[in-house]
Design a protein that fits this description.
Helices cover 45% and strands 19% of the residues. The chain is built from eleven helices and ten strands. The chain is globular.
C-alpha cells in the first residue's frame, strides 16, 4: 500500500473539516467544526455567514488536524480539497487554502467531487470493500444511484429530477414547525408514529427507472397539512413524519435493490448525509440481507460532511494521476457523472 500522507480539506456547506490520511484508508485525524448552532436560529444555512465562519475556522482546523496526527506540514505529500458541489463562497475558502498550501509546499493538488467523497467514506469504514458495487447516495442536495465499477470508473444509473431526499426532509420538517436540521427531527418523530397512517404518492415507479423525484411527495404532505387545518382536524405530527419517511425509504430501497440486480453485483453501499437516518439504514440492512446482498454503511461521523472521505477519494485519484492545477476553481453545481 502506498504510504502517501494526504492533507484533505472540506468546506462545501456548514462544516469546516481537515483530515490527515496515510495511504487511502488509514485516517490519522479527522477534525470537523460544525456551524449548526449558528444557523439554527435562521432555520437553515445562510451562505454568507457560512463563508465567513469558514474563513475564521479553516487554519485552526488544519492546525488541529496536523497536531492530532503528529504530522508536520513538511511531511504532506499531496493535498485534496472539495471543489464542488456546494455553496460557492464556502467552497472557495477551502479551495483557496488548499491552493495556497499546495503552492507553498510544492506538492500536488487534487480537486475532489464532494459526492464521490461520500461514496468513498465506505472504504474507510470497511477496509475489505472493493469495487464493483452499487452506491446509493442520499444527501441534502442529491439522490443518486451510482455503479462503482472500479476506484476511478463510475456509471450514473439515475439521480433526482427535482428535490433530493434530504431537501424534502428539511422542507417537510420546516412546514411542520420542527427545528433545523430537519432530517434528524423527522427521523426521531417518526419513531412514535404509524408509517401506514397516510398514503402519500410515489413518483417514477416504472420498472427500470432509476431516477428520483420527491417534489410531488413534499407537495402532498403540504396539501395534507393544509387540508387538515381547514377542516379543523387535529394533526398527528408523528403519523405524518412516519408516513412521509416511510414513502421516501420505500422508494430508495426498491430502486437500489433493482439497480443492484440489473448490474449483477452483490454489494450495496449507502452514502451521504441522509445515510445517518436510522430507519433508512436499518430497513436497507434488512432488505439486503433478505435479498442476499452485502450492505455497507459508513460510521455515523463519516456520513456527515468530513475531510477524511475527501482524502480517501483524493488518494485514489492520485493513483490515476488525476491532479488539478493552481487554476482550480469552485464549481457549486458540480454533478455526479460517468467516469
Amino acid at each position: 500500500m502506498d504510504e502517501k500522507i494526504t492533507l484533505a480539506i472540506e468546506s462545501s456547506c456548514d462544516e469546516t473539516s481537515a483530515a490527515i490520511l496515510r495511504g487511502g484508508r488509514q485516517v490519522l485525524s479527522n477534525i470537523i467544526s460544525t456551524q449548526i448552532p449558528i444557523h439554527q436560529k435562521f432555520g437553515g444555512v445562510v451562505p454568507e455567514i457560512a463563508s465567513r465562519k469558514h474563513i475564521v475556522n479553516i487554519m485552526p482546523v488544519i492546525d488541529e488536524a496536523l497536531a492530532k496526527a503528529g504530522v508536520e506540514l513538511a511531511d504532506i505529500d499531496q493535498i485534496a480539497v472539495t471543489y464542488g458541489p456546494g455553496l460557492v463562497g464556502a467552497l472557495l475558502v477551502g479551495v483557496s487554502a488548499a491552493k495556497a498550501l499546495a503552492f507553498t509546499l510544492d506538492v500536488p493538488l487534487i480537486g475532489v467531487n464532494h459526492l464521490e467523497g461520500h461514496i468513498f467514506a465506505n472504504f474507510i469504514s470497511h477496509q475489505d470493500l472493493k469495487p464493483p458495487f452499487m452506491a446509493l447516495v442520499v444527501s441534502g442536495g442529491h439522490t443518486s444511484l451510482v455503479h462503482v465499477k472500479d476506484y476511478n470508473s463510475f456509471s450514473l444509473m439515475g439521480q433526482t429530477r427535482d428535490d433530493a431526499a434530504g431537501e424534502a426532509f428539511d422542507k417537510v420538517a420546516r412546514v411542520m414547525g420542527l427545528p433545523y436540521p430537519g432530517g434528524p427531527q423527522i427521523d426521531k418523530l417518526a419513531q412514535e408514529g404509524n408509517p401506514n397512517a397516510i398514503d402519500f404518492p410515489k413518483a417514477l415507479q416504472e420498472k427500470g427507472n432509476y431516477e428520483f423525484s420527491f417534489s410531488g411527495l413534499k407537495s402532498a404532505v403540504l396539501n395534507y397539512l393544509n387540508s387538515m387545518k381547514c377542516k379543523k382536524i387535529e394533526i398527528d405530527k408523528a403519523d405524518v413524519a412516519a408516513s412521509f419517511q416511510n414513502t421516501v425509504i420505500e422508494v430508495l430501497i426498491a430502486k437500489a435493490l433493482s439497480a443492484v440486480k440489473e448490474v449483477g453485483c452483490n454489494t450495496l453501499v449507502l452514502a451521504g448525509g441522509v445515510a445517518a437516518n436510522s430507519s433508512l439504514e436499518s430497513r436497507l440492512r434488512a432488505a439486503t440481507e433478505k435479498a442476499g446482498i452485502r450492505f455497507c454503511y459508513p460510521d455515523k461521523i463519516l456520513c456527515t460532511d468530513n475531510a477524511a472521505m475527501i482524502g480517501c477519494r483524493g488518494y485514489y485519484q492520485s493513483l490515476a494521476s488525476n491532479f488539478a492545477d493552481l487554476y482550480l476553481n469552485a464549481v457549486p453545481g458540480l454533478e455526479l457523472q460517468d467516469l
